[in-house]
Structure to design on (180 residues):
Protein backbone atom coordinates (compact mmCIF):
# COMPACT_ATOMS: atom_id res chain seq x y z
CA UNK A 1 0.00 0.00 0.00
CA UNK A 2 1.43 3.36 -0.90
CA UNK A 3 1.48 6.31 1.45
CA UNK A 4 -1.15 8.01 -0.68
CA UNK A 5 -3.59 5.16 -0.03
CA UNK A 6 -3.12 5.16 3.74
CA UNK A 7 -5.86 7.69 4.42
CA UNK A 8 -8.39 5.37 2.74
CA UNK A 9 -7.49 2.28 4.75
CA UNK A 10 -10.32 0.79 6.76
CA UNK A 11 -9.94 -1.57 9.71
CA UNK A 12 -11.13 -4.60 7.69
CA UNK A 13 -8.66 -3.75 4.89
CA UNK A 14 -5.91 -3.37 7.48
CA UNK A 15 -6.79 -6.80 8.98
CA UNK A 16 -6.93 -8.42 5.52
CA UNK A 17 -3.52 -6.95 4.65
CA UNK A 18 -2.07 -8.34 7.89
CA UNK A 19 -3.36 -11.82 7.03
CA UNK A 20 -2.11 -11.64 3.44
CA UNK A 21 1.33 -10.36 4.42
CA UNK A 22 1.61 -13.09 7.06
CA UNK A 23 0.70 -15.74 4.47
CA UNK A 24 3.22 -14.36 1.99
CA UNK A 25 5.92 -13.93 4.69
CA UNK A 26 6.20 -10.26 3.77
CA UNK A 27 7.13 -7.28 5.88
CA UNK A 28 4.19 -6.85 8.23
CA UNK A 29 4.30 -3.05 8.49
CA UNK A 30 1.00 -1.70 7.24
CA UNK A 31 -0.19 1.85 7.75
CA UNK A 32 -3.26 1.73 10.02
CA UNK A 33 -6.43 3.77 9.49
CA UNK A 34 -6.36 7.41 10.58
CA UNK A 35 -8.25 6.78 13.86
CA UNK A 36 -5.52 4.43 15.13
CA UNK A 37 -4.83 6.38 18.32
CA UNK A 38 -8.32 6.15 19.78
CA UNK A 39 -9.04 4.18 22.95
CA UNK A 40 -10.74 0.78 22.92
CA UNK A 41 -11.71 -1.94 25.39
CA UNK A 42 -10.85 -4.82 23.08
CA UNK A 43 -10.94 -5.92 19.47
CA UNK A 44 -12.27 -8.95 17.60
CA UNK A 45 -11.75 -9.95 13.98
CA UNK A 46 -14.36 -12.19 12.37
CA UNK A 47 -13.67 -14.03 9.12
CA UNK A 48 -16.43 -15.50 6.97
CA UNK A 49 -16.17 -17.64 3.87
CA UNK A 50 -19.27 -17.67 1.67
CA UNK A 51 -21.22 -16.27 4.61
CA UNK A 52 -20.15 -18.98 7.06
CA UNK A 53 -17.92 -18.41 10.06
CA UNK A 54 -14.26 -19.15 9.24
CA UNK A 55 -12.58 -17.68 12.31
CA UNK A 56 -13.21 -15.23 15.12
CA UNK A 57 -10.67 -14.25 17.73
CA UNK A 58 -9.73 -11.16 19.65
CA UNK A 59 -8.56 -9.55 22.84
CA UNK A 60 -10.06 -7.75 25.80
CA UNK A 61 -6.76 -6.01 26.54
CA UNK A 62 -7.31 -2.24 26.29
CA UNK A 63 -3.63 -1.50 26.97
CA UNK A 64 -2.56 -2.55 23.47
CA UNK A 65 -2.55 0.22 20.86
CA UNK A 66 -5.50 -0.29 18.52
CA UNK A 67 -3.41 -1.23 15.44
CA UNK A 68 -1.52 -3.86 17.46
CA UNK A 69 -4.78 -5.29 18.83
CA UNK A 70 -6.33 -5.51 15.33
CA UNK A 71 -3.11 -7.01 13.92
CA UNK A 72 -3.00 -9.70 16.60
CA UNK A 73 -6.75 -10.43 16.36
CA UNK A 74 -6.46 -10.83 12.57
CA UNK A 75 -3.57 -13.25 12.92
CA UNK A 76 -5.25 -15.34 15.62
CA UNK A 77 -8.58 -15.43 13.74
CA UNK A 78 -6.83 -16.57 10.57
CA UNK A 79 -4.27 -18.97 12.00
CA UNK A 80 -5.05 -19.90 15.60
CA UNK A 81 -8.84 -20.31 15.98
CA UNK A 82 -8.98 -23.90 17.30
CA UNK A 83 -12.30 -24.53 15.52
CA UNK A 84 -10.76 -24.19 12.04
CA UNK A 85 -7.61 -25.05 10.11
CA UNK A 86 -5.33 -22.10 9.32
CA UNK A 87 -6.43 -19.84 6.47
CA UNK A 88 -4.64 -20.48 3.18
CA UNK A 89 -3.61 -17.99 0.52
CA UNK A 90 -5.95 -19.62 -2.01
CA UNK A 91 -9.04 -19.00 0.13
CA UNK A 92 -8.15 -15.42 1.06
CA UNK A 93 -10.13 -13.90 -1.87
CA UNK A 94 -13.26 -15.73 -0.65
CA UNK A 95 -13.04 -14.33 2.88
CA UNK A 96 -14.92 -11.35 4.19
CA UNK A 97 -13.34 -9.54 7.13
CA UNK A 98 -15.17 -7.80 9.96
CA UNK A 99 -13.52 -5.84 12.77
CA UNK A 100 -15.34 -5.14 16.04
CA UNK A 101 -13.88 -2.46 18.31
CA UNK A 102 -15.34 -2.88 21.78
CA UNK A 103 -16.46 -0.30 24.31
CA UNK A 104 -15.79 -0.55 28.04
CA UNK A 105 -17.83 -3.41 29.60
CA UNK A 106 -20.36 -2.50 32.27
CA UNK A 107 -22.10 -4.83 34.75
CA UNK A 108 -25.57 -6.07 33.81
CA UNK A 109 -27.82 -5.33 36.74
CA UNK A 110 -30.97 -6.86 35.25
CA UNK A 111 -32.11 -8.53 32.05
CA UNK A 112 -33.72 -5.21 31.09
CA UNK A 113 -30.23 -3.68 30.71
CA UNK A 114 -29.45 -6.00 27.78
CA UNK A 115 -30.41 -4.69 24.34
CA UNK A 116 -30.06 -7.34 21.64
CA UNK A 117 -28.05 -6.15 18.67
CA UNK A 118 -26.60 -3.28 20.70
CA UNK A 119 -24.83 -5.16 23.49
CA UNK A 120 -22.34 -7.96 23.49
CA UNK A 121 -21.90 -10.02 26.64
CA UNK A 122 -19.07 -11.33 28.76
CA UNK A 123 -20.05 -14.07 31.20
CA UNK A 124 -17.45 -14.95 33.82
CA UNK A 125 -17.16 -17.01 36.96
CA UNK A 126 -13.73 -17.63 38.44
CA UNK A 127 -11.33 -18.51 35.61
CA UNK A 128 -14.14 -19.36 33.19
CA UNK A 129 -15.11 -16.64 30.77
CA UNK A 130 -17.06 -16.43 27.54
CA UNK A 131 -17.96 -13.66 25.14
CA UNK A 132 -20.51 -13.09 22.40
CA UNK A 133 -20.28 -10.04 20.15
CA UNK A 134 -23.47 -7.94 19.79
CA UNK A 135 -24.12 -9.19 16.25
CA UNK A 136 -24.34 -12.86 17.39
CA UNK A 137 -27.81 -12.47 18.92
CA UNK A 138 -29.20 -10.89 15.76
CA UNK A 139 -27.47 -13.27 13.31
CA UNK A 140 -28.77 -16.32 15.19
CA UNK A 141 -32.17 -14.83 16.09
CA UNK A 142 -31.69 -15.35 19.82
CA UNK A 143 -33.81 -13.89 22.58
CA UNK A 144 -32.07 -12.46 25.65
CA UNK A 145 -32.16 -15.63 27.74
CA UNK A 146 -30.92 -17.81 24.87
CA UNK A 147 -28.12 -15.34 24.17
CA UNK A 148 -26.97 -15.50 27.80
CA UNK A 149 -27.46 -19.26 28.16
CA UNK A 150 -25.59 -20.13 24.98
CA UNK A 151 -22.70 -17.87 25.96
CA UNK A 152 -22.53 -19.65 29.31
CA UNK A 153 -22.43 -23.11 27.71
CA UNK A 154 -20.64 -22.55 24.39
CA UNK A 155 -18.07 -19.95 25.41
CA UNK A 156 -17.59 -20.07 29.20
CA UNK A 157 -18.14 -23.80 29.78
CA UNK A 158 -20.73 -23.07 32.45
CA UNK A 159 -24.26 -24.45 32.97
CA UNK A 160 -26.88 -22.70 30.81
CA UNK A 161 -28.46 -20.87 33.75
CA UNK A 162 -25.14 -19.76 35.29
CA UNK A 163 -25.82 -16.16 34.22
CA UNK A 164 -28.61 -16.05 36.84
CA UNK A 165 -26.23 -16.92 39.70
CA UNK A 166 -24.78 -14.21 41.97
CA UNK A 167 -21.36 -15.92 41.59
CA UNK A 168 -21.41 -15.20 37.87
CA UNK A 169 -20.63 -11.76 36.53
CA UNK A 170 -22.32 -10.62 33.32
CA UNK A 171 -20.86 -7.59 31.59
CA UNK A 172 -22.39 -5.69 28.67
CA UNK A 173 -20.39 -3.87 26.01
CA UNK A 174 -21.02 -2.15 22.72
CA UNK A 175 -19.01 -2.48 19.54
CA UNK A 176 -18.27 -0.43 16.48
CA UNK A 177 -18.42 -3.02 13.72
CA UNK A 178 -16.58 -2.43 10.46
CA UNK A 179 -17.33 -4.60 7.40
CA UNK A 180 -15.53 -4.86 4.11
Amino acid sequence: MSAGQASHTTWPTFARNVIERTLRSMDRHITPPPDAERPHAGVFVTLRRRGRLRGCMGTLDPSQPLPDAVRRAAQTAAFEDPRFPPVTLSELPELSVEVSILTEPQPMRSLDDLELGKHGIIVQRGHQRGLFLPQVAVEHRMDKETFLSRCCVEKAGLPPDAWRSPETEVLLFGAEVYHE
Q: What stands out?
A: The mean pLDDT is 93. The chain is about 25% helix and 25% strand. Residues 66-79 form the longest helix (14 residues).
